[in-house]
Amino acid sequence: MMLNSTKMLFVMFMFMSTLISISSNNWLSGWMGLEINLMSFIPIMYSKLNYYSSESSMKYFVIQSSSSMILLLGIILTSLKINMNFSMMVMTCGLLTKVGVAPFHMWVPSIMEGINWINCLILSTWQKIAPLTLISYSMNNEMLIMPSILSLLIGAIGGLNQSSIKKLMAYSSINNMGWIIISMMMSMMTWINYFMIYSLMISMFMYMLNKENINYINQCFLSTFKSINKMFLLIMLLSMGGMPPMLGFMPKWMIIQLAMMFNMYIVTTVMVFSSLIVLFYYIQMSFSMLMINSQKLKWMEFSITNNKMVILSFFINMFGFIMIILIKSMM
């Protein structure tokens, strides 16, 4: 994303609109913040270097405007006090469509495939803050339990046969939305912690893929991809899959503990099962990447000055969980 004055203005509006939505005290101002957020992000998505960005921005506009209409219909029905349960269900459907929770998830892989890594990062993290906050305000456990289970299963199974890393991250995002919705039913602080750690891990992962200009799994097998970077990418993938003792294991462990305390045994089984599938295709990708190596070793070509962010991400993912346990034990 080029940092020209126009895009910086849209980025500022995007940040401000999210703050408007999460700090609003009525549904209409929350809806208004979501609309400003939508109109701010669409110009950021467009890129002259990417032929598919205009198609993705149009798809994103159609999906998000449709979900905004559903949300507005629910707000109108709520204000008219017409069947409050049905009104809240309509509002929740609109918000679930905005974050790409199953069964309203089909737009996520196709849109992420057509945009660059920076926009993928914004779409996976910042764009979900306002809708998730509004969903937490309109909690209905009976209605959210089925979309969360579907998200866990579809996000896990959908990523099995993908060759594009962007589509893989899209299905991983759908799976993580299931974890967030389930944690939202039990504790406000738990889903916030999960989302923050998930955003940190995915930011470091997408930063490295953007830096190396990698979009497909077979690009990880090229001789130009250095061996030391493969090791760092392996650690990030294992952390995102939830392999202990990496950082990504901690929030999943917390949610599983809470779910057992709330006697949600079937949901816990689905969570563990889906997490194992996600970890399987991350390990499969990592194993192939490490085994298929180039003829010329490139360990000595690693430059510390040019890879400070990569080293930092390695230590955060590798030792973040251990550091958090130590800090909690000292408190």
TrEMBL record:
<protein>
    <recommendedName>
        <fullName>NADH-ubiquinone oxidoreductase chain 2</fullName>
        <ecNumber>7.1.1.2</ecNumber>
    </recommendedName>
</protein>
<feature type="transmembrane region" description="Helical">
    <location>
        <begin position="191"/>
        <end position="210"/>
    </location>
</feature>
<keyword id="KW-0830">Ubiquinone</keyword>
<keyword id="KW-0732">Signal</keyword>
<feature type="transmembrane region" description="Helical">
    <location>
        <begin position="262"/>
        <end position="283"/>
    </location>
</feature>
<keyword id="KW-0249">Electron transport</keyword>
<dbReference type="InterPro" id="IPR003917">
    <property type="entry name" value="NADH_UbQ_OxRdtase_chain2"/>
</dbReference>
<comment type="function">
    <text>Core subunit of the mitochondrial membrane respiratory chain NADH dehydrogenase (Complex I) that is believed to belong to the minimal assembly required for catalysis. Complex I functions in the transfer of electrons from NADH to the respiratory chain. The immediate electron acceptor for the enzyme is believed to be ubiquinone.</text>
</comment>
<feature type="signal peptide">
    <location>
        <begin position="1"/>
        <end position="24"/>
    </location>
</feature>
<feature type="transmembrane region" description="Helical">
    <location>
        <begin position="61"/>
        <end position="80"/>
    </location>
</feature>
<keyword id="KW-1278">Translocase</keyword>
<keyword id="KW-0679">Respiratory chain</keyword>
<comment type="similarity">
    <text>Belongs to the complex I subunit 2 family.</text>
</comment>
<keyword id="KW-0472">Membrane</keyword>
<dbReference type="GO" id="GO:0006120">
    <property type="term" value="P:mitochondrial electron transport, NADH to ubiquinone"/>
</dbReference>
<keyword id="KW-0496">Mitochondrion</keyword>
<dbReference type="GO" id="GO:0005743">
    <property type="term" value="C:mitochondrial inner membrane"/>
</dbReference>
<keyword id="KW-0812">Transmembrane</keyword>
<feature type="transmembrane region" description="Helical">
    <location>
        <begin position="231"/>
        <end position="250"/>
    </location>
</feature>
<dbReference type="InterPro" id="IPR050175">
    <property type="entry name" value="Complex_I_Subunit_2"/>
</dbReference>
<keyword id="KW-0520">NAD</keyword>
<dbReference type="Pfam" id="PF00361">
    <property type="entry name" value="Proton_antipo_M"/>
</dbReference>
<dbReference type="GO" id="GO:0008137">
    <property type="term" value="F:NADH dehydrogenase (ubiquinone) activity"/>
</dbReference>
<dbReference type="InterPro" id="IPR001750">
    <property type="entry name" value="ND/Mrp_TM"/>
</dbReference>
<comment type="function">
    <text>Core subunit of the mitochondrial membrane respiratory chain NADH dehydrogenase (Complex I) which catalyzes electron transfer from NADH through the respiratory chain, using ubiquinone as an electron acceptor. Essential for the catalytic activity and assembly of complex I.</text>
</comment>
<feature type="domain" description="NADH:quinone oxidoreductase/Mrp antiporter transmembrane">
    <location>
        <begin position="24"/>
        <end position="277"/>
    </location>
</feature>
<keyword id="KW-1133">Transmembrane helix</keyword>
<feature type="transmembrane region" description="Helical">
    <location>
        <begin position="304"/>
        <end position="327"/>
    </location>
</feature>
<feature type="transmembrane region" description="Helical">
    <location>
        <begin position="143"/>
        <end position="161"/>
    </location>
</feature>
<keyword id="KW-0813">Transport</keyword>
<keyword id="KW-0999">Mitochondrion inner membrane</keyword>
